[in-house]
Task: inverse folding
């Protein structure tokens, strides 16, 4: 039986348009999901939108419509962007889905039955934009545009003093259990720097967590407690269970939650504590990726540098954008992009590198009759280099070192281009057997490379595999050593990666 692999993104608030952070997280998660499928795993990939909470309620009020009508309209751009970017999700979950509401209430009841929920009064600082509570020590003193003193969260968002009746979760009772889990499972939070941050936070002491609100009603109702709706993060985090099939779902536990570094606390502290209380298995790993900035600056409306990822994908091509983000942004670190960087990376790696390798060999084959040439023995240096680099690629992908895996792919492109240049098949017309062998070797090297880049540039890889004569059932990683038979008819070559030129500002 195939291994099962359940992977999720964080779910997005649909109170604004999708931004580059959404695109980056979706693309990275999609590449991992596609990689696992190509290895032969049975994959379930979940993404979606987080549609409850005060932030959504306020945005709907500003728009002058009911919250449900608001999210019915605003979630669609996130679905559309995912489809445009080739995101191969199995379910796009909405927290307004009926099965999700039932799941959240069942999870709440399990925590209540454990004795971990109690009624009290919340007094403290709350950020509507972050949908998060903050301790006094975490806040930043600042001034607004009129010089009035205000308090900001660690994310730089305003907080307000809130007093209301609330259900509380005994988070403080789970500090030792969380620390023990971190110790026993060092890969639970990745990269390691994020785990160290979470360990330090827990060691600093955990306060019980306010779990319900009474000041608004746009949320999942607390069972048996009229007037209370659940804290939006209880609702949001539980989507992973809903997507798995419920509290006893066949896909739980998740193998990997891919999230932004700004929400690691919710996924690595609150979420496992809820699951421990409900006596459910914990996810196997949480990966907190960095931010994607524009020319080194964080995107913000005030700076006027917010970029629409759908427009970028249309302008540069989906696969070029996917390649750039996963090649140039070290997975786990912050990264930066610009039009120039996207164009230069695509031209260097895809047009001049992989595309040039494929087209030079395919063009010669087309002139020699248009069928796959025959091998004549083995060229050991190239074969040995590829064996080493393929092993390296799989190790890096398994460790979620996506950018390093693409570095390795480009090393393979360099090896193959070097082989082709040294063998100089254009000068072998008097030795057709040797010429055929060099072309066959080059095309087979190209086939191997293209198989490996499928998770990142699926459409372009598919077009290249068509030109290389690779059958649809021979495009998984188990077929890496399955050569295209000599004599296979190859279609006329066509460029897949045309060079782009930056338009003047």
Result:
């Amino acid at each position: 039986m195939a291994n099962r692999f359940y992977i999720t993104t964080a779910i997005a608030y649909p109170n604004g348009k999708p931004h580059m952070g959404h695109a980056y997280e979706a693309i990275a998660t999609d590449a991992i999901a596609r990689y696992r499928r190509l290895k032969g795993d049975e994959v379930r990939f979940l993404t979606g939108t987080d549609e409850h909470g005060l932030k959504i309620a306020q945005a709907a009020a500003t728009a002058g419509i009911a919250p449900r009508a608001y999210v019915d309209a605003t979630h669609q751009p996130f679905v559309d962007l995912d489809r445009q970017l080739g995101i191969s999700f199995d379910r796009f979950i909405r927290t307004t889905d009926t099965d999700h509401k039932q799941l959240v209430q069942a999870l709440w009841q399990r925590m209540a039955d454990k004795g971990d929920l109690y009624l009290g009064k919340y007094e403290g600082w709350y950020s509507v934009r972050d949908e998060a509570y903050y301790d006094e020590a975490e806040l930043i003193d600042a001034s607004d545009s009129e010089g009035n003193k205000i308090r900001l969260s660690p994310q730089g968002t305003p907080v307000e003093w809130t007093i209301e009746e609330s259900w509380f979760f005994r988070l403080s009772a789970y500090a030792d259990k969380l620390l023990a889990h971190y110790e026993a499972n060092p890969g639970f939070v990745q990269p390691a720097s994020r785990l160290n941050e979470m360990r330090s936070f827990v060691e600093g002491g955990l306060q019980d967590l306010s779990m319900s609100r009474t000041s608004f009603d746009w949320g999942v109702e607390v069972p048996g407690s009229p007037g209370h709706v659940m804290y939006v993060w209880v609702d949001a985090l539980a989507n992973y269970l809903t997507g798995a099939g419920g509290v006893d779902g066949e896909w739980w536990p998740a193998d990997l939650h891919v999230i932004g570094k700004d929400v690691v606390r919710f996924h690595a502290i609150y979420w496992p504590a809820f699951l421990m209380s409900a006596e459910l298995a914990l996810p196997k790993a949480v990966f907190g990726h960095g931010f994607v900035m524009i020319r080194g600056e964080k995107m913000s409306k005030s700076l006027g540098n917010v970029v629409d990822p759908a427009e970028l994908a249309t302008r540069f091509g989906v696969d070029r954008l996917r390649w750039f983000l996963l090649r140039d942004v070290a997975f786990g670190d912050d990264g930066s992009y610009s039009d120039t960087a996207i164009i230069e990376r695509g031209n260097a790696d895809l047009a001049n590198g992989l595309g040039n390798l494929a087209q030079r060999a395919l063009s010669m084959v087309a002139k020699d009759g248009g069928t796959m040439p025959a091998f004549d023995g083995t060229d050991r240096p190239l074969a040995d280099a590829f064996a080493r680099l393929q092993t390296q690629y799989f190790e890096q992908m398994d460790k979620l070192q996506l950018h390093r895996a693409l570095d390795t792919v480009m090393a393979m492109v360099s090896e193959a281009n070097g082989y082709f240049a040294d063998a100089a098949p254009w000068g072998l017309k008097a030795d057709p057997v040797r010429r055929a062998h060099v072309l066959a070797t080059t095309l087979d090297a190209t086939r191997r490379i293209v198989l490996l880049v499928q998770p990142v540039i699926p459409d372009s890889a598919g077009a290249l595999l068509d030109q290389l004569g690779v059958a649809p059932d021979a495009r998984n990683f188990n077929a890496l050593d399955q050569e295209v038979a000599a004599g296979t008819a190859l279609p006329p070559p066509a460029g897949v990666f045309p060079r782009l030129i930056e338009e003047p500002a």
